[in-house]
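Hi P.,

Sorry for the delay on this. The queue was packed all week, but I finally got your sequence through. Input first:
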Amino acid sequence: WGGVVPRLAQEGHRKAIDETVEEALRRAGVKAEELSAVAVTVGPGLGLCLEVGVRKALQIAAEHRLPLVRVHHMEAHTLVTRLPASTPSAGAEGSSTLPALEPAFPFLTLLVSGGHNMAVLSRGIGNHTILGSTIDDSIGEAFDKTARVLGITQVP
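Then the structure:
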């Protein structure tokens, strides 16, 4: 049906990983040696592609003697909305405080991505219940297959 070919996807990830990491560090305005830890997605996902990221993360962590933080792919998508603002607000007596994280637990998330679609009830970090998910193709995968059938090769 024209889905992802795991070995070709892995090859694409291998070709892109070094440049992707360098660009991410450049955009963040930091050098690898300035990091305090290295986070890496460990699943779920296409194992061969995840392996590329894990190997790169292990390399950076070992080279700079940093802790490695394993991240669940779908939990990361769910919790990204709770990231604090990049700049703290001035609190009482000149102290810097971050605003309360929102949304507050519990909350419902509809995850729609290239490989996964699910409704998730989040009660806390590491405490999630999948209320429903697709059985076969995700919406993103269906879009890819439809584009291939229609001959759409140029994606903006």
